[in-house]
């Protein structure tokens, strides 16, 4: 009788190990490294988060041509009180499974990218980002905008978006000659 049970026990163990592997992998879904993510915040969301200044955000990722282990992370935001779209680009480096740390040259700030619990989405964790400045940024000259982590401006869930949206974002970034994309 034991001889009949042994194959079933082995099969059950294999199924259990497979199920455990699947459960471990689900929260650690891979971020698309050549992709587009965005979010337009509704009036209802902004009313629930009165200290959030960001009204929309788009982020495009693309591998750098000369070092495919690094990625350009182009960001566009709009903020309360202005229809002007603010732009910047950072260099993103993988820091572990499905995670990136991104820095903007010339001390333009930093942010992190992490997978979200919502399938296909990501979280952008803000430290500080200067927009529209490039390496010639001069806050006193009024040619840039600084977004700092605040009560409602520190964690942003971004959902997958049409690649055409971020293709246009990268074209604008390239046209303006931001520093991080000089290798592309």
Summarize the entry for a quick read.
The protein has 3 helices and 9 strands, in the order αβαββββββββα. It has 184 residues and is of the alpha+beta class.
List keywords for this structure.
single chain, 184 residues, alpha+beta, eight-stranded antiparallel barrel
Written overview of the protein:
There is one protein chain. This protein has helices at 2-25, 43-48, 163-176; strands at 35-40, 54-63, 71-79, 86-96, 99-103, 109-115, 122-131, 145-148, 155-160. With 184 residues, it is α+β, with helices and mostly antiparallel strands. The chain has an eight-stranded antiparallel β-barrel with strand order 1-2-3-4-5-6-7-9. β5 (99-103) and β6 form a beta hairpin. The protein is globular, with a radius of gyration of 21 Å. The termini are far apart.
